[in-house]
Specification:
Layout (H helix, E strand, L loop, with lengths): L3 H5 L3 H10 L3 E8 L3 H7 L9 H8 L4 E7 L3 H9 L12 H5 L14 H11 L7
Antiparallel strand pairs: 1-2
Bound molecules: adenosine-3',5'-cyclic-monophosphate (CMP).
Adenosine-3',5'-cyclic-monophosphate (CMP) binds next to helix 4.
């Protein structure tokens, strides 16, 4: 996902450009404004965390871009491309170092396993919307 901080600052095109230049193929993509209920469901795994309310409110504060990306070793390579969750700790040249402002408003989300990538892809896309 490209998160609301990045879409609202006009970084969507630059972030997609960086992702595609890193070798990822876009298999599905949509521009969507999540409701608080939808954002809460997506991040339900973090329900008990102290930042859950803030995370859900932020993720439903504006449009996001959801995408399914394909590449060999996609999960690990995408996490390297986006950098650490906290942009202050992200390596130079990573998407979060380039575009994020804080640990909460950190520009992008990437799945943390192949299994979660399948679950998260199914959250946003039907079979008709991917190829
Ligand atoms: P993401 O990769 O989308 O997965 C969960 C998100 O929770 C994470 O990126 C951060 O945006 C957010 N998050 C993690 N830790 C904190 C924190 N300490 N305060 C606020 N948000 C956080």
């Amino acid at each position: 996902m490209i998160k609301p901080d990045a879409t609202s600052k006009g970084h969507t095109g630059a972030i997609l450009d960086q992702i595609i230049k890193a070798g990822f193929k876009v298999k599905a993509m949509k521009w969507i404004h999540l409701s608080t209920a939808q954002a809460g469901e997506f991040y339900a795994v973090h329900k008990e965390r102290p930042f859950y309310g803030e995370l859900v409110s932020f993720m439903s504060s504006g449009p996001i871009v959801a995408a399914i990306l394909e590449k060999d070793n996609a999960v690990a390579d995408f996490r390297t491309l986006i950098g650490a969750t906290d942009p202050a700790k992200a390596d130079a040249g990573t998407i979060r170092k380039n575009f994020a402002s804080s640990i909460g408003e950190n520009a992008v989300h990437g799945s943390d396993s192949d299994e979660n990538a399948a679950i998260e892809g199914n959250f946003f896309f039907s079979g008709l919307e991917r190829f």
